[in-house]
Each structure stands twice: as structure tokens, then as C-alpha cells.
User: Which sequence fits this backbone?
């Protein structure tokens, strides 16, 4: 109630209802009431009194006992049964002096008695006293109601423990925690409702006499069998020497707050997809582990796993499959890491030592290994487990991981340095061919500084158009004519010098530059080849290697078609070289894009054939026009029987499937002679001519045409 409403209530003129069948008594009492500051109304019997009461809503009722139609006892009962009459002071006026009548009146709800004949001088003071008492009672009830409302909103209960009887009186406004109202139960029954983990702490409150106050949170079982988390405050307020006689406690339901706190903690410290700790929690956890390791001189290993080519899964199968796969990876990692490999919370096998730190990168902290070599055993076990196919929504997915390992104290003494060095080791593992693990070394650090420099300057070179293309001619073995050339990237930097493609391409792939690089090369070679068509140079097919990431871009076929239209190059003079794995691991939409390009005349060749994972079934559905034999087999011609047999088998396969066969890396005359004898269609390699710049290539073609020279 506001202060304004309280003031209005205090200024209200008190009202008195006089019920008596004697008109003289009513008039005299009325006069005294008016002199005492009351507004008075009269009723001559009980039935009329009930009607007047509902209209007047009096503050005090003076009620005669002996009346016609409805006596005072029945009227009192009727008034007490009204919601507005339950707390109104009812003063009996009676000439009856027998004790049974008095007892009966009090039992029925009488507040006070006035014996007739009435002393009207005293009556004035009695009325004022009763009014003051009523106001105090009203204020007390209002205060109690406010307290009950607060307890209800706060989900607050209370109890009192009595040492002598070892019982507890509980109170709850609406029965949320305890039975509604005040109830008495034995201590043992209350203790049984407390969760077993907290019973000992709860009992200590009653045995520790030194403490006058205490607080505790525990699980409390409710009558319906559910459990709520409560926060309890207690006070030992009644003592006799060193003995506690009574303890008072308040119990507040904090389940919702605890749940909200838990959710905030989960969102802050754990990955929402896998449920594993995130980088924030991992860093805090690792710092604690390192403190223990420093104290007890232990070895700690940090293992970072990054899954190879994971983006292809997301691009081809979508986000939902990706999330399911990440959860399955987390489950596999939990299986791989044994309790002895790490420290877990609370001694349980809830391994906080495994974390997902972003994307497809995971971290394992190994805190109970004797030497760093033990980490390799865990990694081998992990890689073996991860090598098994994952089944996600009827998709069979095979994954490999590049792994980096750093160790305390050799590679750093804090979480930041250990994670950084393990990340560097991951990059080294990727550089070395992926699907392997590397320990961090200082040599890796310097090599990766070089890598960072290459990436930074490559971005700038691409932006400034400082890259160039060289062309290696292709020879048709049927007529000994140059029928095309392969476009090869070249880059000479002012600070780094000449950077080889073998160094450029992996860095471009990992940094995401490969798509921009492929787009730049595609446009550059199409422009150049169209320019050559406007000279005396014969029509030649320019081939270009397409990175899997570029193949995965949206509207790949549309982009290639737009470049052909922009540069006005005939589609039949462009050949795209795709790796086996780039096609076998691609979605049907990608295969369709390549098919669309082949249908407009673009030639499609399977590059490095024999080194990938394609099968004859795959070859039948691939939209290809040729096979390019990997140079490792060409180098073995006439040197190893296996390489020679493989080359012969590929040539026969191409012939049988009506596909063009191209051999790359031809450097020896014996290789050229053998390929020609087995009816290979085209060859390229340093024996024909090394790669040349655009100007040098044009001059070489002109010179060759003038001399009629051939490599055969």
C-alpha cells in the first residue's frame, strides 16, 4: 500500500454498528459514539444488522445478546462468516452473567463484553481503545500479507527447529516448498528430503554451536517427488549457555537461477554443437594443468587436430550434415582419450581435456604422460579411430586429420605459447602432405615464418597483377605437330625471389587464395590464347589445372562460360585439367557443371591419372574427354616393369573408352619412343621444351614452323 493510501485510510472516520432491540440503549450508545468521533448506524435485530453491515462496512459492532428474530450469538456467527466480517471487533452487550454464556460467545467470535447496565462514561474510552487495537491488528495483518506476498514471489519458505523436541515447524505461503501454512515434522523426516550429497553439511548446522549464522545450498525433494535447489540461511537465535535451543532458517528456491547460471556457463565455456569445452575454457583449464605440472615437474602435451578438406563436406552436404559430423567426431575423440591421458573434473570421465576451438579444429591436452613420445601413441590411436568411415544421414564420410604436437616445458610454459606452437606444427603437417602428425621444432617456426611471408606477398602480387603465366607445349605424336600448351603459374618477388609453384599452390589452397588465383589464371590464359588467334599462330588448345576449391564455387560452369564470352575464346580451345579425387569426392551438382562445360566444347582431362581413387565405374560417369598419365609412371618407363605395365594399361584403357591419352613429364628419348609405339596421343615435358613465357612461346612456335623441326 502506498503512503498516500495509508494516509487516506488513517483519515477515514470510524464507523460503529449498534445492534439492540431497546431503542433507548441504541440512542444513548449512538450519542456516546458520536462524541467519540464515530459515525453510527442502528439495527433493532440480527437480520437487519446483517443488511446494514454490508452497506456500512463498520469498524466495530456493538451487539446485544437477547434479541427477537435472530439473537446475538447467531448474528455473531453470521457476521464472522462474511469475508468482510472475519476480523471486525464484535462487542457483546449483555446482562447475562453466567460463565457458560460468556464462554459460548468467545467461542463464536466475540471480541469483548460490556455488561448492562452500560457505564456510558467508560464506554467512550472502551470504544477508542478497541478502535486503536483494531488499527494495530489491521496494520499487522497488512504487514503479514505483504510478507506472504514477498515470500510467494521469492519462493521463500521458513522453518524453526526446537532442540528439546528435535522437531521442525515449517511454513510456506502456497505450498511450493513445504506443506502450506505452519506444519510440524520430525528432524529425521526433513533430513530425508535433502539430497544425500548435502545431508552431512545440513546436519553440521545443528552440531556446530560456535556458529550463530550459516548458509547452504542443497537439493530438496518436494511432495511430488521432484527436486529443487534451495538456498538456506540460518540463525541460532535462542541459546542457553553453550546449548542452542532454537534455530531459525529461511529456504529460497533458486533452481531457476541455478539453471540460468548453468546455461550462461555452458554458453560461455562450451561449444554449442559438440558440447565440448571451447577455447576460452580450454585456456583456463590448460593454465591450471600447467601450474600443477610446474609444481610436480610433469610433462604436458598439447595436441591440435585439423581435419583435412573438411570444407568440402559442408559445401557438398550442407550445414546440418556438418554439425552431425562434428558431434560424431567429438564422440570418437572421447573414445580415444583414456582417463589416464588427462585430468578430468571431479574424477569422472567427463574429459575437459578435449576441446573444439573453432571450425574443424580440436585440441587434446595430455597431462599425465611420462615423456613427449607418449603423445605420439595417443595420436596414433586417435588417427586410427578417426580413419573409420562416419555415417551421417546415409552419407559415408571418410576423414583424415593433420596433427600438431607441442610440449611443456620444452615448447612453452603457458597456454598461449603451447597452443600457438601446436598450431604451427599442424601447418607443418599439412605442408608435408596432410594426414600425419608433426612435433613442434624451431625449424618449423622459421619455415612457417617464410610461409607467412609468402602468403602476405602473394596476396599483394595477385592484387597488383604481378604474377605471370608460362606455357609448356604439347606434341601430337600422330603428326608431330604442336597442338596445345599447358598454362603454368610463375612468380618472381622483389624480396622473396623466384617462388616455385610447389610452394605457392599449397599456401594458396590453405589460405583461401586458390579460387582468386584460379580465376585470375583462367582469364589471363583465355585472353592470351585469343590474342594469339589474331596472329599467324595456329589454333592451339590451352590447358589449365583447376583446383578442387574453385570447382566447388557456386555457378562454376557459369563463371567459365562468362570468361570465354568476355575474352571471345572458342570453347574448343580451352582444356580444364581436374584431379581424380576432385571429381570422385564431388557432389552431383559439380559433376553436372563440368558436363555442361564439356557440352559447349570445353575439353575435360583427368589429371595425374593413376594416383587418385577413381574406379572404372567413376570413369564411366565422369564427363571427361582425356586422361593425363602421372609423370611418376612416365619416369619409370623401361626402368621398372611395374611402371611400364601401368602406362601400357592406361593407354589401352583410354583407347578402349575413346579418350585422349596425354603423357606428362617426358624427359628421355626412350620414354618418347615407347609412348609413340603404344599410340599415346599427346606428350609434354622438357624433352619437347621447357615452359616459356608468352613472348618466348610465340617466338618458339614461329621458329619451329619456319624450320619444320619436330621432337620425334
Assistant:
Amino acid at each position: 500500500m502506498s503512503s498516500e493510501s495509508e494516509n487516506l485510510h488513517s483519515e477515514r472516520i470510524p464507523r460503529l454498528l449498534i445492534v439492540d432491540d431497546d431503542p433507548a440503549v441504541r440512542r444513548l450508545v449512538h450519542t456516546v459514539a458520536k462524541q467519540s468521533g464515530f459515525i453510527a448506524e442502528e439495527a433493532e435485530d440480527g437480520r437487519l444488522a446483517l443488511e446494514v453491515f454490508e452497506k456500512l462496512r463498520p469498524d466495530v459492532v456493538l451487539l446485544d445478546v437477547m434479541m427477537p428474530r435472530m439473537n446475538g450469538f447467531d448474528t455473531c456467527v453470521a457476521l464472522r462468516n462474511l469475508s468482510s466480517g472475519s476480523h471486525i471487533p464484535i462487542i457483546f452487550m449483555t446482562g447475562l452473567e453466567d460463565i457458560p454464556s460468556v464462554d459460548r460467545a468467545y467461542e463464536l467470535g466475540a471480541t469483548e463484553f460490556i455488561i448492562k447496565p452500560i457505564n456510558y462514561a467508560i464506554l467512550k474510552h472502551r470504544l477508542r481503545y478497541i478502535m486503536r487495537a483494531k488499527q494495530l491488528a489491521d496494520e499487522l495483518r497488512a504487514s503479514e500479507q505483504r510478507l506472504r506476498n514477498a515470500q510467494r514471489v521469492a519462493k521463500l519458505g521458513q522453518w524453526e527447529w526446537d532442540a528439546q523436541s528435535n522437531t521442525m515447524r515449517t511454513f510456506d505461503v502456497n505450498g511450493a516448498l513445504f506443506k502450506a501454512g505452519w506444519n510440524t515434522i520430525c528432524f529425521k523426516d526433513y533430513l530425508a528430503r535433502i539430497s544425500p550429497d548435502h545431508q552431512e553439511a545440513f546436519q553440521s548446522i545443528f552440531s556446530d554451536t560456535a556458529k550463530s549464522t550459516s548458509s547452504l545450498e542443497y537439493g530438496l525433494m518436494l511432495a511430488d517427488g521432484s527436486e529443487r535447489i534451495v538456498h538456506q540461511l540460518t540463525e541460532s537465535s535462542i541459546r542457553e549457555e553453550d546449548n542452542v535451543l532454537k534455530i531459525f532458517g529461511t529456504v529460497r528456491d533458486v533452481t531457476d537461477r541455478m539453471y540460468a547460471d548453468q546455461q550462461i556457463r555452458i554458453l560461455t565455456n562450451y561449444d554449442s554443437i559438440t558440447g565440448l569445452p571451447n577455447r576460452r575454457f580450454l585456456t583456463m583449464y590448460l593454465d591450471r594443468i600447467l601450474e600443477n605440472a610446474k609444481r610436480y615437474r610433469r610433462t604436458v602435451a598439447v595436441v591440435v587436430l585439423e581435419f583435412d578438406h573438411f570444407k568440402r563436406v559442408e559445401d557438398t552436404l550442407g550445414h546440418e550434415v556438418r554439425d552431425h559430423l562434428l558431434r560424431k567426431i567429438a564422440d570418437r575423440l572421447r573414445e580415444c582419450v583414456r582417463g589416464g591421458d588427462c585430468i578430468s573434473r571431479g574424477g569422472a570421465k567427463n574429459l575437459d581435456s578435449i576441446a573444439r576451438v573453432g571450425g574443424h579444429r580440436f585440441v587434446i591436452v595430455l597431462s599425465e604422460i611420462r615423456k613427449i613420445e607418449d603423445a605420439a601413441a595417443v595420436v596414433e590411436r586417435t588417427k586410427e579411430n578417426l580413419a573409420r568411415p562416419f555415417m551421417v544421414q546415409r552419407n559415408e564420410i571418410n576423414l583424415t586429420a593433420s596433427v600438431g604436437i607441442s610440449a611443456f616445458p620444452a615448447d612453452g610454459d603457458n597456454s598461449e605459447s603451447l597452443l600457438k606452437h601446436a598450431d604451427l606444427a599442424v601447418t607443418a603437417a599439412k605442408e608435408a602432405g596432410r594426414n600425419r602428425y608433426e612435433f613442434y621444432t624451431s625449424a618449423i617456426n622459421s619455415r612457417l615464418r617464410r610461409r607467412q611471408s609468402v602468403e602476405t606477398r602473394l596476396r599483394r602480387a595477385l592484387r597488383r597483377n604481378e604474377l605471370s603465366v608460362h606455357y609448356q607445349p604439347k606434341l601430337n605424336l600422330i603428326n608431330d605437330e604442336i597442338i596445345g600448351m599447358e598454362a603454368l603459374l610463375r612468380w618472381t618477388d622483389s624480396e622473396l625471389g623466384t617462388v616455385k609453384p610447389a610452394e605457392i599452390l599449397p599456401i594458396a589452397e590453405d589460405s583461401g587464395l586458390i579460387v582468386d588465383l584460379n580465376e585470375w589464371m583462367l582469364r589471363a590464359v583465355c585472353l592470351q590464347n585469343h590474342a594469339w588467334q589474331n596472329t599467324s599462330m595456329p589454333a592451339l588448345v590451352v590447358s589449365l589445372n583447376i583446383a578442387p576449391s574453385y570447382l566447388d564455387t557456386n555457378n562454376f560452369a557459369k563463371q567459365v562460360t562468362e570468361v570465354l564470352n568476355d575474352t571471345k575464346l572458342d570453347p574448343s580451345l580451352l582444356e580444364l585439367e581436374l584431379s581424380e579425387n576432385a571429381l570422385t569426392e564431388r557432389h552431383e551438382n559439380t559433376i553436372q557443371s563440368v558436363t555442361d562445360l564439356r557440352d559447349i566444347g570445353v575439353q575435360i582431362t583427368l589429371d595425374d591419372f593413376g594416383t587418385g581413387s577413381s574406379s572404372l565405374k567413376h570413369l564411366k560417369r565422369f564427363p571427361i574427354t582425356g586422361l593425363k598419365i602421372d609423370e611418376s609412371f612416365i619416369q619409370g618407363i623401361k626402368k621398372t616393369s611395374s611402371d611400364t605395365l601401368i602406362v601400357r594399361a592406361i593407354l589401352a584403357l583410354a583407347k578402349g573408352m575413346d579418350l585422349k591419352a596425354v603423357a606428362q613429364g617426358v624427359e628421355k628419348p626412350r620414354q618418347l619412343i615407347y609412348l609413340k609405339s603404344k599410340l599415346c596421343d599427346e606428350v609434354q615435358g622438357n624433352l619437347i621444351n621447357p615452359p616459356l613465357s608468352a613472348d618466348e612461346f610465340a617466338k618458339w612456335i614461329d621458329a619451329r614452323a619456319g624450320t619444320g623441326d619436330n621432337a620425334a
The first helix runs from residue 3 to 10. Residues 96 and 102 are 8 Å apart (CA to CA).
